Amino acid sequence: MIDLVTVVYRPEMPFLELQAKSIETYFEDNFINSITVVVNDDDSVCDLIDKSWWGKYKHIVTVVPYSVYRYECRINGWENQQLCKLLSVSRCDKTWAMVLDAKTLFIKSCTPQLMFTGDKFNSLPLEIGLFPEFTAAKESVQKIFGISFNETVGPGGVPFMMHTDTVRDMIKYIEATFETTFDDFFQTKCRYPDLITEFYLYSGYVTYQYNNIHELYSGHQNWDCVNLADWQIDQFDDVYKKMELVKTLTVSVQAQAWNILSPQQKLLYLELLKFKKIINDTEDTLDKLNTVVIN
């Protein structure tokens, strides 16, 4: 069994409701131990979340505000989301925790057989050199752990599986080494000039502790995740074709991207969700998602 962790803020509520339905539809029974929804917003936003959205899994859903972690936030929402993911995983009970964004929707059966080979999670490593925008993060992580760091745990975004004991060990190591709280460390290092991310930091510690990521990750992956970001709008047709592939486990449309899709593109995406039995009514869902406003 695994734990699920989703971090959400107020404008993403319509996406979160869809995610809940997708989890109920596509997760194999007895694969999920718990579902934690962390609200990266005012505490009052917790009241907007209805556990019944998760259907048969509603009894294992816990909704918590990030204020439970008792630190003063001095970073922006996207950066704080990353910190919330790591702190939330450190509190999970099971060996593995799957980290999600609210927009992540499952469209294929998610089973232990698909996700694991033995006790290793099925994901392909990513060569850091292919992503020059993360050069600063790479160099910072190398200094933090005193390692040579050439690949990160895949898929590089969500769904991202974290080994919970390793996350707890990482937090202990950082607090002992830097003589500060983990939240203070992360809020400093996620800013210029270090620009670390949660997944780079975690991948670096896995490399430090186990010498390479293959101690925990199989290097095989028979599933894909397909996300449409705002800078990919002119590539919509190609991204949509990938969403339709049998191998695709999750799909998502970044909130900023949703707001600039054409009406026809929005309906195409919703028709896919209807075909995958996540929604029943495209027009009703369109009305809900069109309330999402990201400044």
Can you describe this structure in just a few lines?
With 295 residues, this protein is an alpha/beta fold. The protein has helices at residues 13-26, 77-89, 112-115, 135-145, 164-178, 182-189, 198-210, 236-243, 255-258, 263-275, 282-289; strands at residues 2-8, 32-39, 61-65, 96-101, 105-106, 116-117, 120-121, 126-127, 151-152, 160-163, 224-228, 248-253.
Question: What's the number of helices?
Answer: 11
Strand content: 15-25%
What's the CATH architecture name of the largest domain? Alpha-Beta Complex
The radius of gyration is 19 Å
Largest sheet: 5 strands, mixed
State the distance separating the first and last CA atoms.
38 Å
Global shape = globular
Strand order of the largest sheet: 3-2-1-4-10
Q: Structural class, please?
A: alpha/beta
H/E series, N to C? EHEEHEEHEEEHEEHHHEHEHHH
Q: Which percent bin holds the helix content?
A: 25-40%
Number-wise, the strands total 12
Could you tell me the mean pLDDT? 96
CATH class of the largest domain: Alpha Beta
Write the CATH fold name of the largest domain: Spore Coat Polysaccharide Biosynthesis Protein SpsA, Chain A
